[in-house]
Amino acid sequence: MPHLTTPPGATAAASTGAGRLGLGVPGYAHPLLAPVEWAELTRPGTPLHWAVLNVAQGPGGRPDPHCSQAAARLRTAGGDSRLLGHLAMRDGTRSFGELVSDAHRFRDWYGVGGFYLADAPAGKAELDAVRRVTETLRSLGDGMRIVLGCGTHPHEGYAETADQLVTFSGAWADYRWSQVAEWTADHPAELFCHLVHGVPRTHLEEAVRIARWQGAGTLWFTDRRGAGDRDPWASMPGYWDEIVSRIGTGVLE
Question: Which residues pair with 163 in a beta bridge?
């Protein structure tokens, strides 16, 4: 069993099934290359919290009809807030103007209901700059969902800047021995997301248990591995049906 720091109340939540887990898809390949993957997200009963549209590390240079069709189907299936535009923060090196410009294109071209800020900073020094970006993004429409893709536990102040924080993004070998920051115990599971690649089918149940014990409300597990230029998030996991069934029905024990 992994060495975990368990937030108070996590045991009770896991045993009662309170706070259903859901899926957050960090970015499938282009809909033309991954039509099955995008279609599966609209299957009735899929416990999808959000999926990220990433055309070319952003919205691309012009509207893409294939992305427009995929976006429209996803919105029809579950509402605007399920579709997030990919904004590349590059650890805070992207300018405020570039990010806001990309956000406007995503909103105008694809009708996204929020944004996934990839490679978001996690330090206290960058907090004010990140807050400025997220507050501006929220002003683009009612109910804009903001997910910060820090990939690690950021400074606690980030909990007030977004709807959700990605506090783990990486390989299963690291995840199974990971720990959570103590400050996360003061916040609901809905604030946290874990993205893990290279999870074997035989360890899927264990991975779900870890997410529960660590207080994550959204997850994405895949058996795909990132090696070289390969993107582990580009296609659905080989155990897609199993994870949809497990998460969707709240099977935990």
Answer: none
